[in-house]
Amino acid sequence: MPIHQQQLPGLDDIQRVQQPDSHPGQSIQQRFEAFHILNPWVLRHLEALATDCLAKGFRRVGIGMLFELLRWRYGEATRGDVFRLNTTSAAGTCGS
Q1: Where would I find the H helices in 1-96?
Q2: What are phi and psi of 79, to 5 degrees?
Q3: pLDDT digits (tens, 9 = 90+) for 19-74
Q4: Rounded Cα distance, 67 and 89, in Å
Q5: Does the pLDDT at position 4 exceed 80?
Q6: What's the CA gap between 1 and 24, in Å, rounded?
């Protein structure tokens, strides 16, 4: 199958990103938790992409690469909705 026709694994329930209210003085962990409550699918998809990469023999996987894959897929799924994620609040302390 041509690469442009292949689906990325586990990305079938992409939803519109919701931005939490931010408050001065919030820690990275607090920002992550507020974001995650509104967008639990993001972490699920990042984990699925990382698992897929490792299963395919990637020796190193970075959050930047995973985000770019998710941004690309999000653009396809939402038909142009702006993918507003920052790696700090979305990845939190899960190994970013």
Answers
A1: 28-38, 40-55, 63-78, 87-91
A2: 55, 55
A3: 888 889 999 899 989 999 998 988 998 998 899 999 999 999 898 899 888 888 77
A4: 12
A5: no
A6: 49
Q: Which residues contact 53 (CB under 8 A, 6 or more apart)?
A: 61, 65, 66
pLDDT for position 15? 79
CA 89 to CA 91: how far, in whole Å?
6
Over 50: is that where the pLDDT of 5 sits? no
Q: What Cα–Cα distance (Å) separates residue 55 from each residue in 17, 30, 48, 70, 95?
A: 28, 32, 10, 18, 18
Token pair 């142009």 in the structure block, residue: 80
Angle between helix axes 40-55 and 63-78 (nearest 10 degrees) is 120
Name the token pair of 93.
Answer: 């302390």
